[in-house]
Give the backbone structure.
Amino acid sequence: MGLNVENHVPHPPLVVVMGVSGVGKTTVARLLAERLALPYAEADDFHPPANIAKMAAGIPLDDADRQPWLAALAGWLGERCAAGEGGVVTCSALKWRYRDTLRTGCPEAFFLHLSGGHRLVEDRLAHRAGHFMPASLLDSQYATLEPLQPDEHGLVLDVDHTPDHLVEMAAARLRPVNGDLA
């Protein structure tokens, strides 16, 4: 079912829910934040307007476009980490170096990689309304995706499960060794 690196998860945890567009990052992250009683942040809210316009026009972002966005997300993680506060944030975090940028804010960040087959995710995108990310960019996201590596702190879950089931699996992994989260 996925990667499960046995590193220390800080409590309260800082979780980055990652994956390609359409895997359900926002849905799962909101539910997980609620389940863990932690603040939630949506990565899309950290994009500068130029990035949103570019994606809405069907143009993939390049690394230069992503850098200020990733830095802002790392800042959010870093502020919460320094204050000893947890949180849940969405971010595609498709490449190792993007995740490494996020880790500059909080080295102990936990990456929850929502993974799904191309057809399933493509179908979800085709039925999603009101989002600036067009389904035409899905192929470029899969081409860019570098799955979590064995030495990365996180867990991979298949989105063939319900959001509630994914949240329960993630919460079980994030539970402190000597207690429950909720």
Q: What stands out?
A: The mean pLDDT is 85. DSSP finds seven helices and five strands in the chain. The radius of gyration is 15 Å.
